[in-house]
Write a structure and sequence with these properties.
Elements lengths: L2 H6 L3 E3 L1 H11 L4 E4 L6 H12 L6 E4 L3 H14 L3 E5 L1 H16 L4 E7 L13 H5 L6 E4 L3 H15 L8 E6 L8 E3 L4 H8 L22 H34 L6 E5 L5 E4 L4 H12 L7 E5 L1 E3 L3 H8 L4 E6 L9 H10 L7 E6 L9 H17 L7 E3 L7 H7 L4
Parallel strand pairs: 2-3, 2-4, 4-5, 5-7, 6-7, 10-11, 10-13, 13-14, 14-15
Antiparallel strand pairs: 1-8, 6-12, 9-11
Helix pairs in contact: 2-3, 2-7, 4-5, 10-13, 11-12
């Protein structure tokens, strides 16, 4: 570890939104275009405060909608600037059309997505409905589990997005309120160190470079559309190499290590839950407490949701006898997205674990240490008996007379 950098470190108390804002400030962004929405509002609000006080030189554009915010980012990025924005939930849903434009045009944009439930009914709290909505949009998607990680992921997102071999937009996810509004110790880089790590913006095919005229967003139809999308997909899948290189450089700089797939627990465990977001850290506590009962368990979380790390997930789950895939989003008439991803990763491997799909925490409902311990206990029973305790899909923590039916059947009565 670089001792000089370690000597410069200091601890701040930030919530996840402030962590985003500080990373945006240190990245020396040229244009922030946004239409604030809860619970991501403070990401932009804090940055606007930095701008008003003269701490940043970039432009801040308050647009009339989230669709317009991403459109402005695309325009500024195509012109040759470093750009970023933030949104959540319904704002992301309104923005979704332009996400495909940004990735298809290969515009490096960083989007701080503070995950929140989608209406109706209206809910401002966190779940992963908006994270899942972005899954096929062609963006790299990285997940933070804490304010420290929100700072780290947002800062690294610029370096990944702008790499010449990538040139794709990146989403830096964190859980609404559970991370965005929770203040914790964060150890940031000094401004000059962070700026040097991100590096100068490399313009590629800039519209304002009149010595080399280009166009963006052309029409292709059947003659070239297929080839264009195949090349875009190849860049997205190939970005794993750049992501790993960036993680390694960041570890050298800070000592903080990140992987495509994060794991915690006993190396000999044969039961696991797979989750996203802040649930990972709660599961760590549950695992430690269960050791007193003689239950060895582990938790697995994709740090990178897109491109999905199929091989790494499969490797992490080899040897498991029972797995619970925990989806924090309403499944919409099917099994959850994470369940599908994990099943797909394991289908061509020797592993044939029992896999259940647990729908939990919708609209910000708590998932406690006690609740996770009960899930691990159920997995331990399933592993010993070699069969599911109920149906494949179960709703965890639903109140009311239908609760027993949900848990037994996994469908609405």
């Amino acid at each position: 570890m670089n001792k000089r950098v370690m000597d410069l470190k200091k601890v701040e108390v930030w919530d996840g939104n402030m962590a985003n804002s500080q990373a945006l400030r240190q990245a020396d962004v040229d244009v922030i275009a946004a239409y604030p929405i809860t619970p991501s509002t403070a990401t932009v609000e804090n940055y606007c405060m930095f701008h008003a006080n003269g701490y940043v030189d970039g432009e801040v554009i308050m647009t009339e909608s989230e669709h317009a915010a991403m459109s402005a980012c695309i325009g500024a990025g195509a012109a040759g600037g470093r750009v970023a924005t933030a949104t959540s939930s319904q704002g992301l849903a309104l923005m979704i059309e332009t996400l495909y434009q940004a990735s298809g045009m290969r515009i490096p944009v960083v989007l701080c997505l503070v995950n929140r439930a989608l209406a109706a009914p209206l809910n401002v709290n966190g779940d992963h409905s908006d994270l899942y909505l972005t899954r096929d949009s062609g963006w790299i998607s990285i997940d933070a589990f804490s304010p420290q990680e929100a700072y780290d992921m947002t800062l690294m997102s610029f370096k990944i997005s702008e790499h010449p071999a990538v040139r794709l937009p990146v989403i830096s996810n964190q859980d609404g309120f559970m991370t965005s509004h929770t203040a914790q110790n964060v150890t940031p880089l000094e401004d000059d160190v962070a700026c040097k790590f991100v590096g100068d913006y490399l313009q590629v095919n800039a519209l304002l470079n009149f010595d080399k005229p280009v166009t963006h967003g052309v029409q292709t139809e059947q003659d070239w559309h297929f080839e264009h999308k195949a090349k875009q997909h190849a860049a997205l899948m190939g970005s794993k190499k750049v992501i790993l290189e960036t993680f390694a450089q960041f570890k050298e700089l800070t000592g903080r290590e990140y992987k495509l797939v994060e794991t915690y627990g006993d190396a000999d465990a044969n039961i696991a839950i797979v989750c996203l977001g802040s649930t990972f850290e709660t599961a760590m506590l549950a695992i430690e407490q269960l050791k007193e009962e003689g239950i060895n368990a582990c938790v697995v979380a994709p740090r990178v949701f897109r491109p999905f790390p199929l091989e790494e997930i499969a490797e992490a789950l080899q040897g498991m006898k029972a797995i619970a895939c925990m989806d924090r989003s309403a499944p919409g008439g099917t099994v959850g997205t994470l369940y599908n991803e994990i099943s797909g990763a394991l289908i061509n491997t020797p592993a044939r674990p029992i896999i259940s799909n647990l729908i939990y925490g919708l609209g910000g409902r708590d998932m406690t240490v006690a609740g996770l311990k009960n899930i691990f206990r159920t997995l331990d029973k399933e592993a010993r008996e070699g069969k599911l305790s109920g149906k494949i899909q179960r709703f965890i923590g639903v109140r009311g007379p239908e609760l027993s039916f949900y848990e037994a059947q996994g469908v609405q009565k």
